[in-house]
Amino acid sequence: MSLIKLENISKYYKSGEGVSVGMQKISLEFNIGEFVAVTGESGSGKSTLLNVISGLDSYEDGELYIQDEETSHFLVKDWENYRSKFVGFVFQNYNIIDSFTVYENVLLALEVQNYPRKERKKRALELIDKVGLTSHKHHKASKLSGGQKQRAVIARALAKDTPIIVADEPTGNLDSESSKQVISLLQELSKDKLIIIVTHDYDQVKEIATRHIKMHDGEVVEDKTLKQNTHEDVKIEPSIKPMTVASVARFALRNLLSKPRLLLFFIALQVMIILVFTMTYSNVMNTARQDLFNLNLDMGPDIQIFDFHTSNMSDNRMNVVRKDGQTISSDDIEYLSSLSGSNHFVYEGVLFIDEIETNYMYYTHPQGYTDYIPRTYKYDTTYFISKQPQFLVDGRMTNLSATEVVVSNALRVNIGAIIYSREDVVTSEEVTPIQLDTYIYKFPFEDFPDKNINNITWLITYDHIETIAYYGWDLLDLEQLDPVRKDYVTNVSVLVEFYEYNEINYTVVGIFDDSNRGALYFSHDELLNASGNQTLSLSASSEITAERLFKAIDKTTYRVIYPALEQNAIQALFAPINFLISLFFYTLIYGFALFLYFILYSVMKNVMSSRKKDFAIFRSIGTNESKLGLLVIFEQVYMMVISFIVSMIVINILSYSNYSMNLILQRLLPFDYVILFLTFTYLSIWLARRFNKKTFKISVIENLTESREDTL
């Protein structure tokens, strides 16, 4: 029984110009104990014969037998299994992993065959010593000379301990001394193995070769036995175990670390993509989670249902009243204080900043002119900003008096500036006019010298029954008003409205960088003296915390007045539409993620192309498709995990110094982190699978050829 038997084997190569013959009608047998030298001119088919025998390349016609087993039905995984168990390789171009050390190259072959883990290091060092490279064991392969590289490759072939070693021009790039060392090593191996060597220099091996095969134009023209093979023909059962998942994981990590610059490049690229995607995801999903439909029923200005106003209430504040109208109790305060991780404060009553009906606030600009503060500005408490002291640009935000305020950086004022708050007040009073004659009355302006009169309404009563209102000013002439009923008037009075305003001056003692949010922050300590026992005012540490607090409050017991996120029963009607729109947002965000990863894939494709040689070598030494595919997946996942962690660290660092980034971070729920992590994991695996699909679509020898062409 022959170890290898070729029966009328032919191999053809397709090219743009047609089909060329690699070899044709080759019939040969090989056995353990032989040292076979294959010679011939360039293009004669020597390397093709070697590639077919070793399973690196396919054949079109004939049959190849491995210990009498036909191989024409072999699939990719069958050839991988054959290479892993039966064949070790020594190439003219070395095909060594340049980024690995000598030790790592040899260790790789031991890992591929799942050599006992505790014995791998010892075995690798023994083989390195055997080829005389102990002093270079920790040197990168790229730093070795040609002879040293070839000896390292032989050590790797020995590590596989396979019955067949094929050597394609192993001395082609070496000097004479290095060539002798390599041939000597191969001779030593031939005692219990089949060695097939392709060479242009037959003189180097004629003393040790047991057989000489000469080829020309793809055919065997000479097959001469030089020495009798005394080795017994026995069936070989290689005991190589498949590579474990744990070994693949360690191998992937070592493979990444062996290329630090490439690793850093990929991590930097992925960090940039993850940062952009995370910020986009946070903003888009925050929009999706907001009320998609708000019924803004315009009830007219200053419609007041409660004893407070909401027009200037900030996004992180809300007021709470009991639905049953009962007085707020200590149990209510305790319940509301315990919600949402207690990251909020409960004021017992209505804050004075919510009691002002019509409030005009203005300030003196640094350039000297007076300007109104926009009515869109919100009123807040220093409790909100006390949780983020790093954003205080100037001044202070603690120990504020009732007349001190911290302002948003959106308001271009300096420390010490005065903000004037004017509250308009309209009062009314019924007075008796001065009667000048029978039918003429005068309003007594002299009685109100310091009053701003806003409006005068004359009240005229006829026959003690009917009273009409007449909007006039200082004089009333009953005869001119109603000459028919002038004598039936029984009483005349005046309802006068007075216009007044109260002004409070606030001194700016701090400027807070809230990314131009537009807010005035009043003293938390002064607001502790809130008024009323029917209402509680809640101030959260952030808008995001406020949203979560709003959702956590029991709506069956409490009425929550939260202008920033007011929900009502009407929204339930739109639930199906809300779902569809949320689905649209998710689709949009994942489409954006795919776009970003397409950019990454475009870059990665070029970089991964430079690694074709490495992956071809992995395949040649017996790494099967599933394990090599898993290797690429592990690499991508490792880079993604590192990039994700780095990105989250960067976001946290930026959030400490940038208010907008701080809001982005606050919007992310634990669920969002899981979604982001799973998204990037999936996309990393997707990238790996695309690369694997391309890699395993062609044979090992085609991979090696492509890598050499790309290098050139």
UniProtKB/TrEMBL annotation:
One of its GO terms (cellular component) is membrane protein complex. GO terms for molecular function: ATP binding; ATP hydrolysis activity; transmembrane transporter activity. Coiled coil: none annotated. PROSITE patterns: ABC_TRANSPORTER_1, ABC_TRANSPORTER_2. It comes from the Bacteria. Residues 4-242 form the ABC transporter domain. The chain crosses the membrane at residues 262-281, 579-603, 637-656, 668-688. InterPro entries: AAA+_ATPase, ABC3_permease_C, ABC_transporter-like_ATP-bd, ABC_transporter-like_CS, MacB-like_ATP-bd, P-loop_NTPase. The keyword Thylakoid does not apply. SMART domains: AAA. Gene3D superfamilies: P-loop containing nucleotide triphosphate hydrolases. It is a multi-pass membrane protein. It is found in: Cell inner membrane. Its main location: membrane. Pfam families: ABC_tran, FtsX. Keywords: ATP-binding, Cell membrane, Membrane, Nucleotide-binding, Transmembrane, Transmembrane helix, Transport. Belongs to the ABC transporter superfamily. Macrolide exporter (TC 3.A.1.122) family. This is ABC-type transport system, ATP-binding and permease components. The lineage of its organism: Bacteria, Bacillati, Mycoplasmatota, Mollicutes, Acholeplasmatales.
